Amino acid sequence: MRHYVDFEGRASRTQYWLYTLTLFGITVVALALDLIIDDQSAEPAAFFTGIVVLAHFIPSLAITARRLHDIGKSAWWLLLMLAPGIGSIVLLVFMCTPTKTGENRFNTHIGETQSFERKPHFEGTEQSSLHQLEKIASLRATGAIDEDEFKQLKANVLARSSL
């Protein structure tokens, strides 16, 4: 919530979808409260749901704009919401698009700092290459990494040890 109404910068896919999931949960609770309080009149009351929608309208636009920045698109793409049907589909595809790593015109290097690759953590440089290779072999034996990852990590350890 630090970037409640911040339209600048970038938001990763994870940040966007966690916000969306949280907002969905809050909306469901508000809707349930509205249904509990409803007096069964002809017009259903939507007091709590209306408050949630109004309170999160600008923040939803802000995180969507930051998500668009993360994939290298301008926030003006938000205007696609005005096109019925196809606009929402295009925005959904954009929201599911992976982060563009490295610099872009909106901010720098978000993708490189939020990488989700599995990398073994070796504490200190005093560990021998043999010990590192044994750790990698045990990860492969337990199924934590596959054969291709094993080969790549092995090559990295051997390349570092030859320096």
- The gyration radius over C-alpha positions equals 23 Å
* Secondary structure category: mainly alpha
Report the end-to-end length measured between terminal Cα atoms.
45 Å
Question: What is the typical, i.e. mean, pLDDT?
Answer: 80
Secondary-structure element order, as H and E?
HHHHHH
Helix content: 55-70%
How many domains? The number is 2
Q: What global shape is seen?
A: elongated
Q: What are the segments in which pLDDT stays under 50 over at least 5 consecutive residues? A: 109-126
> Could you tell me the strand content as a percent range?
under 5%
| Alpha plus pi helix count | 6
Counting DSSP E segments of at least 2 residues, the number of strands comes to 0
Specify the biggest β-sheet: none
Overview of the structural elements:
The longest helix has 25 residues, at about 15-35. This protein folds into 2 domains: about 15-115, no CATH class; about 130-160, no CATH class. Helix content is about 55%, strand content about 0%. The protein is mostly helical. The protein has helices at about 15-35, 45-70, 85-95, 110-115, 130-140, 145-160. The model is unreliable at about 110-125 (pLDDT under 50).
Layout of strands and helices, then pairs:
Blueprint: H1 13-37, H2 47-70, H3 86-96, H4 110-113, H5 129-142, H6 147-161
